[in-house]
Amino acid sequence: MWQPSILLLCFILQGAVAADRSEVWGYVEIRHKVHLFWWYYKSPHRASSPIKAWPTILWLEGGPGGSGVGGGNFQGIGPLDVNLKPRNSTWLQKADLIFVDLPVGVGYSYVEDPSVLATTDVQVAADATELLKALTKEIPTLHSSPLFLVGESYGGKLAAKIGISVARAIHAGALKLTLGGVVLGDSWISPDDFALSYAQLLRDVSRLSDEAVAPLNRMAAIVKEQIAARQFTTAKMTWTNLVDLIDQQSDGVDMLNFLLDKGEGSSTSQVFPSTPNTIDGLMNGVIKEKLKVIPKNIIWQGVAIQVFEAMNATYMKPAIDEVDQLLAYGVNVSVYNGQFDVICSTIGVEAWVKKLNIHTMGFKAELQGHDKLRREIVEPRHSGHLVERVLKSYSPKFKIFTNIRNSSRGSVILMENHNSIPGVPNLTKDGQENPRPHIAVRSHRGSHGPKILEAWRGKCRECSEPGWPSGSGGTNGLWLQIHRSTNHFQLETQGRGVGEAKHCKTNFISKSPPRSRRKHVGLRRAPQNFFGELEN
């Protein structure tokens, strides 16, 4: 297990270093009046060989405006959590880590003049490239360690942009390192594909009524048209209105995890009271004191609004072309996505991946016949938008580093995270444990049925009637009845006389949604607190 180092602070060009160089951090003035903060961790498990070099990961936080040094480190993949306790699932077990507060103005990074804040992804990529040039002098192992750019949400879009900038600098001889790959996690690569996916996804998981779908699709189509016309600022306004309308029509669905309502997901919240055990209190307290180099007037914030606003005109620009360029350079690109994510949905990811030129460059058959374009399944629990926040183990995601193929044309690995309801076993139709749970479905609140359900096909354990009506083929609308005394479910079709499931005869709680909202939900045992939730 990783243990914190005893630090001997030595000032080196606005930086500091641990006695054994297991940690190094500091500022780089990448442009005039622009100061970028970074923090490097050397893995205690580091072991390189001529066959397999030890990797280094540069973590890029989302936003734009999120702090990698704070959020990505202490709330994500770093060696310590916000309570300064060792994290068993830290990625430091498999790689050296670099966290950076990027774009400048985020976290501990700062500008002396607001006019020099980055306003485009291209500028952010240039800033990151200048940082890496400086870090090759501060971190000698970078020359022999393959560098992986890993970004989540908007950080994934920046990872693609930075990957192009770094690849070009390497090709020009201006940067002496090896780009091992680019990893896109829940990444904001194609805003129009995501916008077009919202209504379909939320309807399919019972967070929207049928009547809400058409107006949402019309608004998403406007977003697509505005992006095509390069009206990016206007497209952002329309997209914001689309998200607001979804909020109204869905009774406040959490766009980061459709199983939740807004405010229920504590793991993604960036707003905390400033106490020692919160990220704000930590970064402005003991961490700031440890680092020694942070100017006194710099107050660390989880989200830098001024940075988000400065990037307003570039927010809706797609980055599909950049992914294609990475592949053309021979850079491996890996994609992972949370199944419960809405804002960067897996449906949207699959849509933009199909637009890549790898499907039209004359080797489509080669990709299909081999494993250069692969679809893998990883199954961390609670996988919404910020997958790395809730991983129980680093190993599933490290497949993207250990299993990437070497290819002269690059490769894409698309991975989707499946999930299950906590505390409820996943059952197959014969009542056995299911190693791969199905997608969970949440119905509407109030009189519109139970709060959380999950699909599987089977028989009622009490009356032995089929849980799936014969003759429906799984295509008719189904609704649920719940037997209080025996704690089991039974399904009924939408009202057709043929093939309806028979019921147990006593004590049903019947809470069926209107026909327009009835969904194909399945049959399974209730969670322990299910009936309490029903009656609330």
TrEMBL record:
<dbReference type="Pfam" id="PF00450">
    <property type="entry name" value="Peptidase_S10"/>
</dbReference>
<dbReference type="GO" id="GO:0006508">
    <property type="term" value="P:proteolysis"/>
</dbReference>
<dbReference type="InterPro" id="IPR001563">
    <property type="entry name" value="Peptidase_S10"/>
</dbReference>
<feature type="compositionally biased region" description="Basic residues">
    <location>
        <begin position="514"/>
        <end position="523"/>
    </location>
</feature>
<feature type="region of interest" description="Disordered">
    <location>
        <begin position="508"/>
        <end position="536"/>
    </location>
</feature>
<keyword id="KW-0121">Carboxypeptidase</keyword>
<feature type="signal peptide">
    <location>
        <begin position="1"/>
        <end position="18"/>
    </location>
</feature>
<dbReference type="InterPro" id="IPR029058">
    <property type="entry name" value="AB_hydrolase_fold"/>
</dbReference>
<keyword id="KW-0645">Protease</keyword>
<dbReference type="InterPro" id="IPR018202">
    <property type="entry name" value="Ser_caboxypep_ser_AS"/>
</dbReference>
<comment type="similarity">
    <text>Belongs to the peptidase S10 family.</text>
</comment>
<keyword id="KW-0732">Signal</keyword>
<keyword id="KW-0378">Hydrolase</keyword>
<dbReference type="GO" id="GO:0004185">
    <property type="term" value="F:serine-type carboxypeptidase activity"/>
</dbReference>
<protein>
    <recommendedName>
        <fullName>Carboxypeptidase</fullName>
        <ecNumber>3.4.16.-</ecNumber>
    </recommendedName>
</protein>
